[in-house]
Each structure stands twice: as structure tokens, then as C-alpha cells.
Write a structure and sequence with these properties.
The chain is of the alpha/beta class and 325 residues long. The chain has a single domain, classed as Aldolase class I (TIM Barrel). Helices cover 34% and strands 16% of the residues. It is built from 10 helices and 12 strands. The strands form 3 sheets. The chain has an 8-stranded mixed β-sheet. A two-stranded antiparallel ribbon has the order 3-4. Strand 7, helix 4 and strand 8 form a beta-alpha-beta unit. The termini are far apart. The mean pLDDT is 93. Bound molecules: iron/sulfur cluster.
Length: 325
């Protein structure tokens, strides 16, 4: 047994996942359809928005506004087996923090999940550091790998992260070439980008065949960005609409931009319009079945990402918030 193995390292479990597994009693407004786990803490990186970053004074066991109580594999394995085999969770997502004790146990965990089910979808979110590392996770049984770039432009990247925007993209694009349709990234909206930056990011991802999970920046106490406000809802809705339009094959030239802002999207397809008025662009985006309930907002606040289909009224409201209706 190595020092850092699944047997020795406690596993962070998102509070929603822990509740579904019967390990934590909280009232869930919406149930997660993906089970989320976190490996490692005290990241070597210094992302200004992240509670796990080196230098962050956030309460332990936080990522975004979610708490991640820790459990042993021994405690997790049976309830997780039941939830996966009954289809309660359609995907397992393994989030990793850059530290010595995350990669080995995360790889072991993926192998164990594969033993439980050969079919369940497994995502692993890793820093976009190398293609070799992506390969390791695929070999253990991951179906998809998320390589979060987070920032929409090199300027924003430089302000909120350490390293190089282009180097991160290089890993993402190479991995997407090697494993087509199986690579995703995250874009956090509200870090200081313009809507034009976000559109450029989304177009680049689409050209590479990379799925984008949109997140709304959430200030977390104790982080370097704790005093930065979350994005304006109109800004977020416009990026969601552009992301949806591009994902459905829309022509980027039909997104009209003025002074860095989206001013119109020329919708000439009835099918797209029907999905838009049903609220599809405002649902959580990213890997299939990843609904991340209340990851970026508290119950009762404006839902930046809906973890389910919207009601007619919610869809109308979200479209109105975009200012593009
Ligand atoms: S989109 Fe969801 S399932 Fe995919 S890597 Fe991101 S958090 Fe995990």
C-alpha cells in the first residue's frame, strides 16, 4: 500500500452527493444526477477565485459555494454501488486538486467505479498540464476528461491564474485531437472578461470539438476575489445564449457584438428558437447529466444555471434578463 491510496486518503463528497448517498442530512431542492467527488486539498496553484488555492483563507472542504465533507472509501463504496446500479447517478465526476495526494487515489477511485459498473459515465477534472496525464485517467476507465481553462482570455487568465492561457489551450486542443468528443473545459463567466472574449473562447472550443461547461463566478470568503461581485445576470444570460447557439451549430458570424457586448443573435432557425423559448440555454451545461444544483447560487437567488428543465415562466424571465428578447 502506498502512502497516498484510496485506503488512506479521505474523499471529498459534494454535500448534494453525500445527501443522496444517505451520508449527510440536508434538504435537497434538486437532486444531483452526477455524483461529485473531490481529491486533494490545498492546491499548489493560486487561482484567485478558488477556495482550494494556495493562500486562500477559506474554510476547509469548500469548492465554489459547495462544501465537501470527507469520507473514507470504506464508507462510500456500498451506498455508491447502490446509487450507480439503480441509476440514481448517471455520471461520476472526479475533481482533482493539484497536490501530492490527489492523483493516485483519484485513479484508484476511477478503477473501483469501473469495477462497480462498466457503463456508468465517469468524468475527471484535471488541470490542463499534460496529455500524458489525460491518458492515465482514460486508461483507468474515465469516459470524459475536463481540462478547465476557466478564464476567457489571456488577459483575464494572467490576472486570476498562474501559468499560460495558450499552454493550457495547447493541452486541451491536443487532447481533443487524440480523444475526439471526450474532452471538455470549464469557462467561469464574471472574472473580468467581455462577452466578445467569451464568444471567442466558445468558438475556439467548438472548433476543437471541446464541450464547455459554463460557470458563474461565485465570490467565496477567504479567496483573493472574495470582494468581487458575481457577474451581472444579463451578461451571464447572453453568454449562455451564445454558447447554446454555437453548440447547436449556429454561425458565429450571426452573433453581433458591439463594444465587447452581444447585442443580437440572428436566429433564422425555428428549431433553435423553440429550444430557446423552452429555456434550454439556461440549463446547466457541460458533460451530459451534470446538473450541479446550486453550485453557483443559493436557493432563492437568481438561478444562473437551472439543474432541470425550466418552467414556461422561468424561461420567459431568463430570456428577458438577457436583454436580447
Ligand atoms: S461539466 Fe460537470 S461532470 Fe463534466 S467535468 Fe465539469 S463538473 Fe465534472
Amino acid at each position: 500500500m502506498t502512502i497516498f491510496s484510496l485506503e488512506t486518503v479521505p474523499i471529498g463528497v459534494s454535500s448534494g452527493t453525500a445527501s443522496v448517498l444517505g451520508l449527510k442530512r440536508i434538504k435537497l431542492m434538486e437532486k444531483p444526477t452526477t455524483a461529485h467527488f473531490l481529491f486533494g486539498e490545498d492546491c499548489l496553484n493560486q487561482c484567485a477565485f478558488c477556495a482550494q488555492a494556495r493562500g486562500s483563507k477559506s474554510a476547509p472542504n469548500h469548492l465554489s459555494r459547495v462544501t465537501w465533507p470527507r469520507f473514507s472509501w470504506e464508507t462510500l463504496k456500498e451506498p455508491l454501488r447502490v446509487a450507480i446500479t439503480q441509476g440514481t447517478f448517471k455520471r461520476v465526476c472526479v475533481q482533482t486538486v493539484e497536490c501530492v495526494d490527489s492523483q493516485g487515489p483519484a485513479l484508484d477511485f476511477i478503477a473501483k467505479i469501473r469495477e462497480i459498473s462498466p457503463e456508468v459515465l465517469i468524468s475527471a477534472a484535471l488541470g490542463p498540464v499534460s496529455v500524458a496525464r489525460v491518458k492515465l485517467f482514460f486508461e483507468k476507465g474515465a469516459t470524459n476528461i475536463g481540462l478547465p481553462i476557466d478564464a476567457a482570455s489571456p488577459e483575464v487568465y494572467e490576472k486570476v491564474k498562474v501559468g499560460s492561457f495558450e499552454r493550457a489551450w495547447d493541452v486541451v486542443e491536443k487532447a481533443a485531437g487524440l480523444w475526439p468528443g471526450r474532452i471538455s473545459t470549464h469557462l467561469i463567466v464574471g472574472l473580468g472578461e467581455t462577452e466578445e472574449d467569451a464568444v471567442r473562447f466558445l468558438v475556439r472550443a467548438r472548433s476543437a470539438g471541446v464541450t464547455v461547461g459554463l460557470f458563474a463566478f461565485t465570490p467565496v470568503r477567504g479567496t483573493a476575489m472574495e470582494k468581487t461581485p458575481p457577474p451581472d445576470v444579463g451578461h451571464y444570460r447572453r453568454v449562455q445564449l451564445a454558447a447554446f447557439f454555437l453548440k447547436r451549430g449556429g454561425d458565429a458570424g450571426k452573433i453581433e457584438l458591439r463594444d465587447g457586448r452581444i447585442v443580437s443573435i440572428d436566429l433564422d432557425r425555428q428549431d433553435l428558437w423553440e429550444e430557446i423559448i423552452a429555456g434550454k440555454p439556461f440549463e446547466t451545461s457541460g458533460c451530459l447529466y451534470c446538473n450541479r444544483p446550486y453550485y453557483n447560487e443559493r436557493p432563492g437567488q437568481v438561478m444562473m444555471n437551472y439543474p432541470r428543465a425550466l418552467t414556461e415562466q422561468e424561461a420567459k424571465e431568463a430570456l428577458k434578463e438577457s436583454g436580447l428578447a
